[in-house]
Design brief:
Elements (H helix, E strand, L loop, with lengths): L1 E5 L2 E5 L4 E8 L2 E6 L3 E5 L2 H8 L4 E5 L2 E4 L3 E4 L2 E4 L4 E3 L5 H12 L3
Antiparallel strand pairs: 1-2, 3-4, 3-7, 4-5, 6-7, 8-9, 9-10
């Protein structure tokens, strides 16, 4: 389980239940899980560092995605819930590399 700060306490969640994070500005981040949506406090770089060991990748400056929840990708990532996440040009090579490493079980 991982804990994330909210305005009123913390949310504690299993990393595999997180689909993605979306930055909403002013240190506000939307956490979308398989069950619900939470609004947490933090920066994308803090989240990226905290979640790297759990196979999360940043395909765009405003998103952090659980690699295990990716159904497909080309110009965008399609998640298991059907959500389309953009892939920024500067992030594409890293996204492909990390996804292939994950798929190969590394």
């Amino acid at each position: 389980y991982i804990s994330f700060p909210m305005h009123h306490g913390n949310v504690v969640i299993e990393p595999q239940k997180i689909l993605y994070f979306e930055y909403e500005g002013n240190r506000k981040v939307k956490l979308v899980s398989t069950e619900t949506v939470y609004h947490i406090i933090g920066s994308m770089s803090e989240l990226e560092n905290q979640l790297k060991q759990y196979h999360f990748i940043m395909p765009h400056k405003s998103f952090l995605v659980n690699v295990a929840c990716i159904n497909s990708f080309y110009n965008d990532i399609i998640l298991s819930n059907g959500r389309k996440i953009p892939i920024g040009r500067t992030y594409k090579e890293e996204v492909v590399s990390r996804y292939l490493d994950f798929a190969a079980g590394r």
